[in-house]
Amino acid sequence: MPRLRVFREHWHEEGFASDVRTMLAYRPELFGRPFSEALQEIMRGPSEWSVGERELSAAFVSAQNQCPF
Questions:
Q1: Radius of gyration of the chain (CA)
Q2: How far apart are CA 59 and CA 26, in angstroms?
Q3: DSSP output for 8-69
Q4: Could you state, in order of their start, the residue ranges of all structural domains in the chain?
Q5: In the predicted model, what is the mean pLDDT of residues 2-27?
Q6: From residue 49, how far is each of 43, 46, 56 by CA, in Å?
Q7: How far apart are CA 22 and CA 5, in angstroms?
Q8: Is the pLDDT of residue 1 over 70?
């Protein structure tokens, strides 16, 4: 898919390439709005955990998985 390749090259040049962005661009009908809405609900919806605690947990798991985001 040429458009995806152009986006990916731009992201790498700008220093903020991520597999998440690639996934969102590749399958927007599946991972675009539906994924983004689910993520917002998980990270910002009602919970016993604060937003900061959820963000810290996500950052910790990402670090443990050696994930750059």
A1: 14
A2: 24
A3: HHHHHHHT---HHHHHHHH-IIIIIHHHHHHHHHHHHSS-SS-HHHHHHHHHHHHHHTT---
A4: 2-64
A5: 63
A6: 9, 8, 11
A7: 9
A8: no
How far is the C-alpha of 51 from the C-alpha of 36, rounded, in Å?
16
Examine the pLDDT at 64 and tell me if it is beyond 70.
Answer: yes
pLDDT in tens, 49-63: 999 999 899 889 888
For residue 19, the one-letter residue type is: D
Instruction: Give pTM, 2 decimals.
Output: 0.55
Dig out the tokens for 31 from the structure. 């991972």
Cβ(31)–Cβ(23) below 8 Å: yes
How is residue 12 written in tokens?
A: 């790498």
**In contact, 4 and 22? CB cutoff 8 Å:** yes
